[in-house]
Amino acid sequence: MRAVTQRVSRAAVRVDGDVVGAINAGLLVYAAAIPDDTIADADFIADKIANLRIFKDDAGKMNRSVLDAGGGVLVVSAFTVAADARRGRRPSFDSSASGDVARPLIDALIDRLRELGAPVETGRFAAEMFVESVNDGPICVLLDSRRVF
Hints:
Number of helices: 3
Helix content: 10-25%
Strand content: 35-45%
CATH topology: D-tyrosyl-trna(Tyr) Deacylase, Chain: A
Shape: globular
């Protein structure tokens, strides 16, 4: 499983003009499942998201997690996060899991984040979504359950 995690001042996702998920300060997470991912991959990414120390402490150092900072998490499923653009100019999406595989894994990621105590909002799986965000920093961190990077 892969995720692009952004520290934001606020973020919202719209489907058909309606806001389906929104947070104030916290993390906007674009997540994609890989075909052979398991629940263990979703758990790994959820733990990383919940405990990633990228929020400032009282001394101004990035030393607090979203849980410590009391922020929200907006999870948006985005198969394009698994794209491979190493060759040519058109990304390949072959490394992205099909909807039948990805949906339960994205759901498991969301469930695990909630179990860890994060207030979670979501987009809508497989919908055309419009995401608005104000990146704070900007701070963006790439996560991969296979620890490729």
